[in-house]
Amino acid sequence: MGEQKKRRTFDRQFKVDAVNLVVQGGKRVPEVARDLGIDANSLYHWKRELEEEASVAFPGKGKLTAEAEEIRRLRRALEQADEERDVLKKALAYFSKNAK
Question: Among 19, 31, 50, 72, which one has the highest count of C-beta atoms within 10 angstroms of its own C-beta?
Fold first, then answer.
């Protein structure tokens, strides 16, 4: 069996600095990626994310954007409502069957 590669993580500042090497340093993405020992696709992704959402880019582990946190909260509420509905359906079926 082959060994699993440990997934490397990079902090926000590393990502910002890497993107700045491309944007302000005038270097190409593959060149910067090779110099830093990272995958070029990751650097392209970081660059796009920083361009689209500069202030909230790279929130870090466990830190969600306001929109993501709202989606998470709404999904949890929907799941709870679904469970309550299922219990009520079962109760209705039980009492309907016993009423006859």
Answer: 19
